Structures are given as structure tokens and as C-alpha cells.
Amino acid sequence: MALVLTEEQSMLRDSARGLISDKAPVSHLRHLRDSKDPTGFSKEFWHSFAEMGFAGLLVPDEFGGSGLGYVEAGVVMEEIGRTLMPSPFLATSVVAASALNRGGNAAQKSEYLPKIASGSLLATLAIDEGAKHRPLQTSLQAVRAGNGFKLSGAKALVVDGHVADLFIVAARTAGSAGEREGLTLFLVNPAAKGVAIERTIMVDAHNAARIEFANVEVTADSVLGEVDQAASLLDGVLDIGRGAVAAEMVGLSDEVFGRTVEYLKSRKQFGKLIGEFQALQHRAAELYVDIEITRAAVMKALQALDADVAKAASAVAVAKAASAVAVAKARAGTTATRAVQEGVQMHGGMGMTDQFDIGFFMKRARVCEELFGDANYHTEQLARARGY
Amino acid sequence: MSDSETADLETFRDETRAWLEANCPPEMRKPATSDADVFWGGRNAKFSSEPQRIWFERMRDKGWTVPDWPKEYGGGGLSAAEHKVLRAEMARMGARPPLSSFGIWMLGPALLKYGNDAQKNEHLPKIAAGEIRWCQGYSEPNAGSDLASLQTRAESDGDDFIITGQKIWTSYANYADWIFCLVRTDPAAKKHDGISFVLFDMTSKGVSTKPILLISGYSPFCETFFDGVRVPKSHVVGTINRGWDVAKYLLQHERAMISGMGERGVGRPLGQIAADSVGTDAQGRLDDVMLRGQIARFDVDEAALAACAERAVDLAKAGQAHPAFSSAMKYYGTELNKRRYEILMSAGGVDALEWESERSKQGARPRAWLRTKANSIEGGTSEVMLGIVAKRILDLPGA
Ligand SMILES: Cc1cc2nc3c(=O)[nH]c(=O)nc-3n(C[C@H](O)[C@H](O)[C@H](O)COP(=O)(O)OP(=O)(O)OC[C@H]3O[C@@H](n4cnc5c(N)ncnc54)[C@H](O)[C@@H]3O)c2cc1C
């Protein structure tokens, strides 16, 4: 498949860009942060987003969505990255929608997917427990109790955790931390007895929460997929999340880069535009190359994820997608880190001020880097996949 | 060094160690973790804790806030060799500096070289005793890397100058008592030749400051405005219109000080800090192969930089140092410190992303991480440092 956007995808990009840059430029995030907005995103804007079909972008037509693929989701994420718009798109429309669509039974899909598509339900995956992303280390316990299960344990970095209407919780029903066997996903109502939610104010002013589960009772119907067998489902869903975050990081990197190049063309020192200094020219040119390489890797990964679905999740397609995603997320992490560092450095003192937007990009890049595994994690994954 | 000198130095080491053991409160034997932990002195200074006060006063009374300054100015009068011993002994026990100050790091050395007796007698003892807090009025909105293009005017009016203009990024200007400031005294001269280095009280009429918020959420620096500030000409350090020499000499000291960040650890080895959050495998190795490699490489570079910093001091004392070498050290030390904090963020993972919680001490780690990004900007950017190395040390054509 050609690594260029189709005409439809370009149109999607243009309409996403138009909407986002118009309604949610970086000042929108700044305002939410400074006003300590309790929701952390604009509900009103989320509704217009849903009306344009973005909330249900990955939801199949039969459930009221647009039935588009991961490349399209990436197109929207990239635009989100350009203005750092906080929105439920990642947690609800990409990750949770994929989990429900892939793992849900008919009843679960018809209950939740239409609501996601209409923008009326927010959902999120609760996966990480320790400081670093280690999905197989999941140790939140789910023990059988009567007809259902009881959940006990804690989750961190649950995106939109304090505003979500539905949690998809990774838990251990058998085996021990580190094992693939014995993982199960549960659909949990945040209002259930025993759930304690603490919104955590993060460096990037985007939503996240820590959640504690103290003997939270769930019925057998709330299992998403099969008991003990969630590892593969989770791999797939996480890879979709990783591809999406990588796309956000491409948008973020490209935007920082663009702003920095503009600065090189306008700031004068020593009677010259600083962009005339070859030391900076070469660094800007290197960053350009870096971003272009990462952009291609991310596109490749999103296409591989689409192909994995098209080929009905054949083992080969899945493995190919997994490696492509590891490459994409690892590259996106290092590229975004470099882009924001160069961005601050080349702006001099100005880059260090809160009044200037560059710092917001640096902060968001740091969180994106941690989300669903950092560059080190994915580099290690690739090494393992290649057998060394 | 003769045998008797070596023996004297060993006696000095034993006495110093004993004195420090007896006098440095345990709370002062670990690195400061926030700016509130640092004692800056000044007219409005407050101690954040009793141990901080005790430590400062004991060191001040011994002249060890400025160990190598002459005793007549409140210093310790230590020789280079003794000063090195004191530093090593303080480092050994993790004792933090009792007083942090732009007066000690920057203005003091410049006054010792360029100040007249009246200026030295007036200002040095107050710096040593932490009585006056100084800020640095160098940068302007259009004079950052190209500092010599500064435009703040000083017009002659009898025995005084009348100063008008704006500075920016003036660290702690809103807390400082006095400023050392670069002003243009001869607008007609070539840009390096019309600058004077002048001292004045920040409470003078016409001085105002406006804090600027940093990306760390703190506000350590200001825009500083001068609207017809009257300053006696006797407050000029060195010769009028030759202030650039003083400014540059001061910058060497500033850069040497900033480069010290590369060596200044955070109390525990990074590998151990990482192990707290990442865990270890059965052999006790950090349970993240890639991160382990990054930390080990950092440790190699940090140890080597420490050796180079020690050597730089010794070369300077031996009169063999290149005057521009502090630029090389400033470049490497600050880049290394930024790397240290990237590693700390990586090691801390999710926990290091929290910004406002009690648990995260109000985001101490991410805020410190963001603050380090200024290290390669303040005191001259990394690009400017490398430019100086290329020009002054390598003598490259056109540099
Ligand atoms: C936290 C902090 C504290 C500070 N405290 C003080 C203070 O107390 N007092 C004070 O006077 N100043 C202070 N400064 C100011 C500092 O010295 C300046 O920010 C610095 O000199 C850079 O100037 P600038 O910000 O104008 O950047 P610019 O000079 O505009 O530089 C922008 C970019 O261009 C690059 N560049 C410029 N010229 C060249 C060249 N010839 N070749 C290659 N690249 C080039 C720079 O390296 C930088 O990346 C502080 C700055 C910070 C961030």
C-alpha cells in the first residue's frame, strides 16, 4: 500500500485540522489548565467532534460509527498533537472502542459502541500499575465470587479516569505477574462500590487518574473476551493505542519543529537572523530528517494495524504489525524528545517561559513517551521479537 | 610539594574533617531538593530551618562561605591546596554549600580582580556574610547571545550616571538587594568598547521588576526596568567604557560554576533511584536493559567530567589553563545535567509525571527536570560555548 494519504484521508485531515486549530489551539489547553477545569476537556467541543463522526471513527457502521481504520485514527491523532488538544479521543474512541469492538460479545458491542459513536459514553483502559508500562506484570487480582468476580488492586495513569463512564480493567484471574496466561479484561462501572478514583494533575495538564479497587464486585457478564486469555486481545489493543500515540507525537514534533524554524527566521542576534548560523541550520535539517523518518515509520505501523484486521488477524499479520508498532513508538519517542529539546534550546530564554507555548509540547511529549511503553520498552520488544 | 607541605596538608585535612563532623548538622549532609532548601542570604533572608541557620553561621564565622577569599574580606584565606581539601571533605560527607549567592560565584571574583579598595571593602565582606543578595543585569530582550549589543543607557550627569533601559531574565531580581549591571556609556563607540560595569541598589528610585513564569511553574527570574536610575560614577567597577573586560571575566566564573552542575549529583546513584521504580532481576541488575545501559554510560561520563573539573582547577592554579576552557566545561557539564534529569524522568515513569500531588512533593522531579533545560541557555548557550571553543581554543578560521 502506498505510504501516502488517500484523497479521503487528506480530506479527513483537513477537516480535523480546521476544526481543531480553530476551536482548540494550544491556548485552549492553557485555559483548561489555568482555570483548573474539573473535566479537563471541553464537553461542548467533544460533542461537535462526535457530530463530525470523529468519536465513532473506529466504530463499525452497524453500531453508528464511521467504520474507518487506524490510518484515519492516526490522521486525527496527528492533528490533536499539533495543538495538544485534551480530548477523550485517545482513551475512548481509539483504545476503548477497539477493545470493545475486538473483544466484546454482541450484547456488549450493541450496548457500548453506539454510545461511544454518539459521544455520550467515555471509556478508558486501566492497565499500568507500577511506574513503568509492563502489561504482563499486571497483578490486580480478580477472584471468583459466586457468579462473578471481586477485583482488588490499583491502577495508575488511567487516561480520563476521573471522567470515564466505563473502565476496562486488566486483571489477573490466574497465574502470576509476568505470565501471559491468566489475564482477563473486565468492564467496570466507575460508580461501583469499592472503586476509589483520584484525579492526578499531570505535568502535561492532560487527564489521568489513579484508581483503587477494593473488593469491587462484578458479574460474569462484565468479562470482555475470555477469562484468563486476554493477553492477545490486550496486545492488539495496546498496539493500537501505541500507534495512535505515536501519531500524536509526530504531529507534536512537526508542530514544534515548524514553530522553531519560524523562530530561526525571525530572531536576530549578531546582526543576523539566527537561522543564518550554520550550526543551527544543520541541527534543524537533521531534525527534519528525523521527523520524516519517524513519520514514515508511524504510517507503516498504522497501515500494518489495518492490514492485521483485514487479514482477520492472521498470526503473521499480527506479528508484523507488532514489530512495526514497536519501531514506530520507539522512533516517535526519541524524535519527539529531540524535537522539544531543540525547540526549547533554539528559542533561548524565551523557550523556558510558561508564557510561550513550546514548554507545553515538551511536557506532553514526556507523557506520550511514557504512555503504553517508552522508547526503551519498544526497542527491547523489537530485540526480543527478532530473537536476540 | 615538599614533605613538610604534604604533612601540613594532611594535618589540615584531619582538622577539617573533625571540624566538619562536629559542626555540620546531619540535615545539611544531603543535597537540597528544592529552592527553599537553598540559603541565598540578603537583607530579607529567612532560614527555612534551624539546621540551615546553624550551618550557615558556623561556616560564615570560619570564613568558609568563601574559603579562598582573603581573611580581610571575610574569607577563609585558604591556599588552593587547602581549598581543594575542604571541597573534597565536604563532598565526602555530602555537606551542602552553606550559602548560595551570585556575589560569591560571580561578582566577588570580578571585584577581587577589578574592584578598587573602597569597592572591595564595601561589598566583599557583605557577600561573605550573606548580608547582601546580588542579581545579574546582563541580558536584554535584543541582547542575549549577542550580549555586547546591549542598549541600556547610562547618561553622564555630573558625578552620576542616569540609567534607563530594560533587562530580561534577571534571576531573582525581585529578591535581590543590589545588581551588577552592564550599561552603555558610550553609544558612539564600537559595541564592545562603550560598555561599563556598574553596581547599584535595587531599592533605588526608578528600578522595577516583573517576574516571569518558567515552564517549571516557578518564577525565578524577571524583567527588570530602569527609569532614570541615578547611580554615582564611583560605582563603576574597572574603567568606564572598559566594562566588557570585567563582564567577560565574570562570565568565566559563572560558567565554571554552572558547569559544576554536571558533577553535582542528586544524593544517590541514578541506578539505585531507578531500581526503586523499575525493580531488579534475580542478579540484582536493573530490570530494564536499555535504561541500565543509559545510566551506566551516564555514570562513566559523570566520573570523567569530575576528573576534568578537578584538573581544570589544578591547571588554573598552575597557570596552565586556557582562559576559555570554562566554556568547554560549561557546555559539557550542562548537557550532562540535562541527561541526568532525562534519565531520572525515565526512571520515575508514571510517578515522575505528577505535578501537584503530595505524593510527588508537588511535582518536584518534573519541575527540576524542566528547570535543567535552562542550564544550556543561562550563562551563555551551548551553541555560544562551542563557538568560543572553536574560536578561542581551536582558532578556527572565520569562527
Ligand atoms: C533560567 C535562566 C536564568 C537566567 N538568568 C540570567 C540572569 O540572572 N541575568 C542575565 O543577565 N541573564 C540571565 N539569563 C539569560 C541568558 O543569559 C540568555 O537567555 C542567554 O544568553 C541566551 O540569550 P537569548 O535568550 O536572548 O537567546 P538568543 O541569543 O536569542 O538565542 C536563541 C538561539 O540561537 C542560538 N544562537 C545565537 N547566536 C548563535 C550563533 N552565533 N551561533 C549559533 N547559535 C546561535 C542560541 O544558542 C539559542 O539556541 C537567564 C536565562 C535563563 C534561561
Automatic annotation (TrEMBL), chain A:
Q: Which segments constitute the Acyl-CoA dehydrogenase/oxidase C-terminal domain?
A: 237-385
Which InterPro entries is this protein grouped with? Answer: Acyl-CoA_Oxase/DH_mid-dom (IPR006091), Acyl-CoA_Oxase/DH_mid-dom_sf (IPR046373), AcylCo_DH-like_C (IPR036250), AcylCo_DH/oxidase_C (IPR009075), AcylCoA_DH/ox_N (IPR013786), AcylCoA_DH/ox_N_sf (IPR037069), AcylCoA_DH/oxidase_NM_dom_sf (IPR009100)
The answer, when asked if Oxidoreductase is one of the entry's keywords, is: yes
Domain spans labelled Acyl-CoA dehydrogenase/oxidase N-terminal: 6-119
Acyl-CoA oxidase/dehydrogenase middle domain: from which residue to which, for each copy?
129-216
GO terms of molecular function? acyl-CoA dehydrogenase activity; flavin adenine dinucleotide binding
Cofactor requirements of the protein: FAD
Q: What keywords sit in the KW lines?
A: FAD, Flavoprotein, Oxidoreductase
- Family from the record: Belongs to the acyl-CoA dehydrogenase family.
Please give the name of this protein.
Acyl-CoA dehydrogenase
